[in-house]
């Protein structure tokens, strides 16, 4: 295995791990949030969980369907519509969430190290596969952070931390 191929393989595996980690954070956040909070916003300019899920679903389907062979901004996508509140149930929203992640993770798992420097297009702009993946890591990380923040806000004192709880860092320091 060449060095470049090894690096590309590690990049793909780490990208999958990063996306799975993001999904896990959001999933654990959703599980702590009452149905009613999926439709609430902090103010008139913020997004609800419903809108964030719908937007991420639309983005994931658009970006990852026919990833190597068609522009990542599909003609059938209604991006503006993703930001409008709807009437989907929590179950329907979670189904959209899962469907988007399934397309993303299936596509990533199908990529080979040799394809990492191939060119793909997003909104007519050329990107390497590596750049396109990094673009989505950043984009989804941004929205998952919003999801976690909203779920934590709505759960308030009932929130169960997703990482090391405040004041407990010393419990996780390695002993020498």
Automatic annotation (TrEMBL):
Gene3D superfamilies: dinb family like domain (1.20.120.450). Pfam families: DUF1572 (PF07609). This is DUF1572 domain-containing protein. It comes from Paenibacillus pectinilyticus.
